[in-house]
Each structure stands twice: as C-alpha cells, then as structure tokens.
Write a structure and sequence with these properties.
It is a single chain. This protein starts with a strand and ends in a 25-residue tail after the last helix. Among the domains are: about 80 residues, 3-Layer(aba) Sandwich (Rossmann fold); about 160 residues, Rossmann fold. The chain has a six-stranded parallel sheet with strand order 7-6-8-9-10-11, sandwiched between helices. By secondary structure, it is of the alpha/beta class. The structure holds 1,4-dihydronicotinamide adenine dinucleotide (NAI) and the ligand O=C(O)C(=O)[C@H](O)COP(=O)(O)O.
Amino acid sequence: MKPKILIDRDIPFIQGVLEPLAEVCYLPAKAITPEACHDAKALIIRTRTACNQDLLEGSQVELIASATVGTDHINRDFCKTNNIAVANAPGCNAWAVVQWVTSALYLVTRQLPIPLSQLRIGIVGCGAVGRCLHATLTALGVHTILVDPPLQAQGGKGYTSLAMVQQFCDIITFHVPFTYSDQSRYPTYHLADEHFFYGLERRPFILNSSRGGVVDDYALLRALERKQIRGYCLDVYENEQDVSPALLEPALLSTPHIAGYSIEGKQAATAAVLQAVCSHFGWPKLLPKLEVDETQRPFNAGLSISDLAKTYDIRKDSLALKAQPYALEQLRSHYAYRHDWQAYEFGNCKLSIQDPLG
Ligand SMILES: NC(=O)C1=CN([C@@H]2O[C@H](COP(=O)(O)OP(=O)(O)OC[C@H]3O[C@@H](n4cnc5c(N)ncnc54)[C@H](O)[C@@H]3O)[C@@H](O)[C@H]2O)C=CC1
Ligand SMILES: O=C(O)C(=O)[C@H](O)COP(=O)(O)O
C-alpha cells in the first residue's frame, strides 16, 4: 500500500512529483490537524504547522520534512521520544535573505550621515545567511563585526562578543535560530531585549529577518522612542498572527516574513524535503518540478550596493504590509517569488555566489 503523505499546499514545485509512489494530500497549513495527520506516514510542512504532542500523538507519522531553515515550530524532544524523524532545508534560502538585507541596507544607508564604506555592520549569527552576508559586505568593502558564540566555541576564528557589536556598530542584523534557554547554551529568545538596547553606543539601525522573538518587539519600540536606535527594519515579528500596526508604522521597512521567498530558495527547499522523503522510504531520488522559464535569466551588470538593491524592490513588500497589517499571512500565500542572485550574472564579478553550507 502506498504511504499517505500530507503536504502543505503552499510549498511550490512539488505537485505531481510524489504521486506515483505515495497517496498524496495537499492541505492549507491550517487544515493539517490531528485528524488529518492520524493515518499519514509523513508530513511535508512549512513554518505554519506546529508539530507537537497535540498534532502528533497517536498518529502514524514517521517523518516530518520542513521546507524551511528554521525548525522552531517542531518539538524535537517529542519527535525523538516518539521515533519521528525530522528533516529541514539548511541553507536553502540564504541568498534570498542576503538579498533582502542588502536592499534594506541600501535604504538604511541613505538615512545615515556616513557612507557605507565607513560604517560598521554587526552580523549576529554567522551560519548560512551570516556567512553569505559577510562575503557580500566584504566584496562591497564594508567593515563587519561577527558574533557567533556556538561557532566560536567550536574553535571558529574571527568572532567577537555581542558587547563589541553594541559598542562599535552602526547597523546590527540578526541571523540566529530561535531558541530558549532549555534548548541551547546560547539561547536567542529576546537576545535583543531592553538591557541590550541600553548597552548600544552608536544609535544603530536594527534589522531582524531571523525569527520574531529574537528581538523583543516591545523593547524595540521603546528603544526607538528613547532614541537608543535610529530605526529598524523587520521581516519577522513576535506575533505574526496579529502583528501590531504600532510596530509596523515607525519601521523604515516591514515585510511579511518573505525574506527567504526566492524561486531559487523555494526550489532548494523542495529539493531538500524530497530528498528526505525519498531516503526515508528508500525511493530513488526525485527532483522538484520547475515551472520557471530558465532561458529568462536576469542579468545584472555591476557590483555596487545600488546594483544589488535593484534586483529586489523591498519597498513594495513593505508598503503592502503597512497598508494591510492584518493580511500578513495572505501576502505570504500570494507572494510572487522573486529571483535571488543565484539566477544573476554579475559582470566584473567580485562577489562569489558560494554554497551557503560550504
Ligand atoms: N525571514 C525569513 O524568510 C527567513 C528566516 N530564517 C531564519 O534565519 C535564521 C538564520 O538562518 P541560517 O543562517 O540559514 O541558519 P543557520 O543555522 O545556518 O545559522 C544560524 C547561526 O546562528 C548561530 N547562533 C546560534 N545561537 C546564537 C547566538 N546566541 N548568538 C549568535 N549566533 C548564534 C549558529 O551557530 C549558526 O551559525 C534561521 O534560523 C531562520 O530562523 C531563515 C531563512 C529565511
Ligand atoms: O526558512 C525559514 O526558516 C523561513 O523562515 C521561511 O522562509 C519561511 O517560509 P514558510 O514557512 O513560509 O514557507
């Protein structure tokens, strides 16, 4: 008998791929309920399905494959105890997020009295995104300060402390997973809290495209009122189901959690979940079904921050959410995925579009 697989219907490039081998059921995230999961062997989900005891207890689920980088929506302890394998898509959308950050930086720097080449940018979290961002900023001649205690503890070189970032940076951007103190030696829940903001010395801009809750949104607003920060750009929020207009309104940019939404990122995410499913069930490798015209490759001639920012108009996404704060989920579901830089050819190239995991 074919195993039943539930798939979030907002995952692109997957329809029709698993059908020859599985009984496939596409559902909106909201409809992935305990009843729907009961007789499923595998779930292919996104950040919108909380995989916990409530959802999984008593089900036949053996594998959860999330087409995302973050896994904070999955209770890994419960899965381990109940022999449920968990897979995600590490690094899949790193270049899309770097594109988001770069477009944001382009607009941020226009608000600052000093040119980009004289700014110091703090990168907190130097995994797939942080590493690609560091490579980009280095190619642009921008000075960075890197913070990643887990990598530093493993002997990684070139990292410093959050205190140095607080002291020296004009812009601080977060690229960490969301973790509580019982999950990590270096928890990130409210890493940027009131105490953090009181410690800032250069009135920086704050960027958060990692997870809501890494930055304490209330403390962020208070920091702006107290002029401890110059401004902020957000893609993620503590309460994405009901994001506060009071938080969006003063933001220089506020987008609906789409930093990672590129065609290339989504394709890589789908490839990763397909690989996880095929290896779990012992099936031959299956690839995403692309509906993209590969001959229509965009071209970008130069490598300056304005050239890079031209590849993605972040203002459009920000204006859309500001106009409809209550439509965050709808804006994500109907998002027209953009190309990230993996699809571009750079003339005069000094920027190497490296493997985010390399
Ligand atoms: N807004 C969006 O659309 C997207 C958001 N994300 C989020 O961004 C995060 C970063 O993405 P990736 O770089 O791909 O993940 P990653 O797992 O490759 O890198 C995370 C890095 O953060 C470091 N880290 C952990 N705790 C830390 C701490 N307390 N302080 C500083 N560094 C710490 C880790 O050592 C690791 O190097 C993800 O965990 C995900 O939650 C990722 C992709 C898209
Ligand atoms: O990969 C992640 O982690 C993200 O945050 C995704 O970009 C969010 O993607 P969806 O859950 O909306 O597919």
